[in-house]
Amino acid sequence: MTAPLPIPTLETARLILRGPVMGDAQPWVDFVETDRAEFVGGPNLGLAKGWRGFAHAAGMWMLRGYGSFIFALKSDPGTPLGMTGPWHPLDWPEKELGWTIWSAAAEGKGEAATAARRFAYDRLGWTTAVSYIDARNTRSIALADRLGCTLDPQAEAPATEADTTTLVYRHPAPEALA
After folding, report:
1. Which residue of 3, 17, 29, 47 has the fewest CB atoms within a 10 Å radius of its CB?
2. Which residues make Cβ contacts (< 8 Å) with residue 156, sequence separation at least 6?
3. Exposed, middle or buried by CB within 10 Å (0-12, 13-18, 19+), for 3?
4. pTM of this prediction?
């Protein structure tokens, strides 16, 4: 048995990426009540399902030794803007780099996802990563494009409960980013 990796804190020029804490649960629940959560089970998930989703994300750190970082501006570290990080539920075909941007003001930069990808490659030793994106999620597709990802039509997507099409975007390999 391997002990979980201590959750590191990452920094970029503007952001801090840290492990989830109880104080992040309510901002997450607030997010999943909005239209911004359309592609993560919302909107209107409610407190019970919202809490379970947050606990699922936080628990990935304990069970896998990695998971989603909460990110915030360095100038306001107590106000989470979203989460991003390495992700791999048991029933998913590949390791994913995922993200949810809770605030429209935090969209479009790619800074947090870039730092999380670097963590997955440098600290976890991943040699590849994908992002599973609903075909209707134009914002996430735009972010994947900004990150240099390419559509991988040969890759298997996870099964979904909804009647949706999931696209698989392949991240550049670590050596391609050097």
Report:
1. 3
2. 93, 94, 168
3. exposed
4. 0.91
